[in-house]
Design goal:
By secondary structure, this protein is of the alpha/beta class. The chain folds into 3 domains: 107 residues, Glucose Oxidase, domain 1; 104 residues, PtsI, HPr-binding domain (Enzyme I, Chain A, domain 2), CATH 1.10.274.10; 273 residues, Phosphoenolpyruvate-binding domains (TIM Barrel, Alpha-Beta Barrel), CATH 3.20.20. 43% of the residues lie in helices and 14% in strands. The protein has 19 helices and 16 strands. An 8-stranded mixed sheet has the order 1-8-7-3-4-5-6-2. Strands 9-10-11-12-13-14-15-16 form an 8-stranded parallel β-barrel, surrounded by 4 helices. The radius of gyration is 25 Å and the shape is globular. About 1% of the residues have low confidence.
Length: 550
């Protein structure tokens, strides 16, 4: 028996045989072509095909945190143009080579130029170029064979995987994933989490493992190769208990979100696209606490029209029925861009013209979305939430636009409701003036992902900081308490909708702070519900332990 330590990206236990997977690459020979225009057309058709493939992946994966969404969106941006595209087209035109060869050669040259750089952002961009290039080459002449997991469920071991490869697998045959490359915050890891597949990263993979029995302990980040009979028996028992616990969670789908001492907590779901609406209902969430509306703006050639937006929001309202659905107005800018937006480059885009700032600069775009949301409000229980608010002056501008929107709808006799509004608290500035902001809206929602990185002055996507990045930092906990108290003084409900809301180890602490609700990805609804039902809102209500218990 051999024991290998890695990092757990998703907890769980898996027992089965290893299937070693090595990603092959295309090797295309140089060949001259007679018809350059035909090759350019092939290149363009491949670009369209790959764009559709990536968009499908983005829409049909379970809700992804921002850092994973960003990778997919950066890949889409690569397909929109830029220096890489121009270099490929130039090679086809000047050297009269095939489109596939031009993509392969340009990719390899770029990788060689930057291979020794340690900058994580450059490494990520090169990896995105490599991945998109492989997809384009495949679209022009073949593709990697779909990973055949075989007839029996297996533990997949690989140096690395792309989200595309993971999504193409037969999920019923996938027990667990073990990777060398990647991290807990990589998009593949998060996708595996959304699929509820135990996942380890940072494990030294050996091809000789293929066909060997193994145990994956996603709770401790441990891989056991060729386990001894005693250990195998122990883990078979633990696996059964783990399975029973998951089945027990499913029994909570129709249970109320109420603490052990009787306080009701609103448990909502975060979603990234309309495909997740059924999942929200399946897990019995009280509604949608955060609908990221960016999915309608990214991965396309132009701005969505008002009627397109309206139809999407109307579906949300109707599907949720009486359940609340909070639509966050579009959070664009920084690393959420599309070619048609023509957003100027910024030295520090995360601190730049993003979120509500960009919307207020592009009032035509913003008003179209506001009109669509208000029109859809007539069909259900819709609320508005604004991202990246840092001042009351921004609220002044928003309120003026809403008055204009309502006036226009009234003139055309289009029905709408006076919907509830809220603010994302994502910056220290918003924390400090949260009581003043709370007097202007109906609810506050703590976006702990951005709030953490702005508070710590750490890029949460920087792998060099992954062991230093602490989303449980005492300063963040104090901020949550501060906003909760300030919001209640101003008459607002206060929610948490970032990744931290799904940490069931903090559920009771949040409730005792006075937080009114939590919004999590649908897959985390039931574990958090279990934590809510076991929690005490007031420590005084907790039963004293008996002498025997002690």
């Amino acid at each position: 028996m051999e024991i290998f330590k890695g990092t757990s990206a998703f907890a769980g236990i898996a027992i089965g045989k290893i299937l070693y997977y090595h990603r092959g690459e295309y090797q295309i020979r140089q060949s001259m072509v007679d018809n350059v225009k035909k090759e350019l057309d092939r290149l363009d058709r491949a670009r369209t095909s790959v764009r559709e493939q990536i968009q499908h992946m983005y829409k049909n994966g379970c809700p992804l945190p921002k850092e994973q969404e960003l990778t997919l969106k950066r890949q889409l941006k690569l397909l929109g143009g830029g220096s890489f595209q121009r270099a490929v087209e130039s090679m086809i035109t000047t050297e009269k080579v095939s489109a596939a060869y031009a993509v392969q050669t340009t990719r390899d040259e770029l990788a060689n130029v930057f291979r020794n750089l340690e900058d994580e952002a450059v490494k990520e961009q090169i990896e995105n170029i490599r991945e998109v290039s492989e997809l384009r080459i495949g679209a022009m002449g073949g593709s990697h064979a779909r990973i055949n997991l075989g007839d029996e469920p297996v533990i997949l071991a690989a140096e690395q995987l792309s989200p595309n490869e993971l999504l193409e697998m037969n999920k019923t045959s996938l027990l667990a994933v073990v990777m060398h490359q990647g991290s807990v915050i990589s998009h593949v890891s998060i996708m595996a989490k959304s699929m509820e597949v135990p996942t380890l990263v940072e494990v030294e993979i050996e091809k000789e493992w293929d066909g060997h029995m193994a145990i994956v302990d996603g709770y401790t980040g441990t891989l056991y190769m060729d386990p001894e009979p005693e250990l195998l028996k122990e883990y078979e028992i633990r696996h059964q208990a783990d399975t029973e616990e998951r089945e027990e969670l499913l029994r909570l789908r129709n249970q109320k979100d109420v603490t052990a001492d009787g306080k009701e907590i609103r448990l909502l779901a975060n979603i990234g696209n309309l495909d997740d609406l059924n999942t929200v209902l399946y897990y019995g969430a009280a509604g949608i606490g955060l609908l990221r509306s960016e999915f309608q703006y990214l991965g396309r050639e132009n701005y969505p029209r008002e009627n397109e937006l309206f139809r999407a929001y109307k579906k949300v309202a109707e599907d949720m029925d009486e359940r609340p659905a909070v639509i966050r107005t579009v959070d664009l800018g920084a690393d959420r861009q599309a070619e048609y937006m023509a957003i100027p480059d910024e030295v520090n885009p995360m601190m730049g013209n993003r979120g509500i700032r960009l919307c207020l600069d592009r009032k035509k775009m913003f008003k179209a979305q506001l009109r669509a949301i208000y029109r859809a409000s007539a069909y259900g229980n819709i609320s508005l939430m604004y991202p990246m608010i840092t001042s009351e002056e921004e609220l002044d501008e928003i309120e003026e636009l809403i008055r204009e929107v309502k006036k226009g709808l009234d003139e055309k006799d289009i029905p709408y409701k006076d919907i509830r509004t809220g603010i994302m608290i994502e910056t220290p500035a918003a924390v400090m003036i949260s009581e003043d902001l709370g007097k202007r809206v109906d609810f506050l929602s703590l976006g702990t992902n951005d709030l953490t990185q702005y508070t710590l002055a750490m890029d949460r996507q920087n792998l060099l900081l992954k062991h230093k990045y602490n989303d449980h930092h005492p300063a963040l906990v104090k901020m949550i308490r501060m906003v909760t108290e300030a919001g209640h003084r101003s008459g607002c409900n206060v929610y948490i909708c970032g990744e931290l809301a799904a940490d069931s180890n903090l559920t009771e602490e949040f409730i005792q702070m006075g937080v009114d609700g939590l919004s999590v990805v649908p897959a985390c609804v039931l574990p958090v519900r279990k934590a809510i039902r076991a929690a005490y809102a007031d420590e005084k209500n907790r039963p004293e332990e008996s002498g025997e218990d002690k």
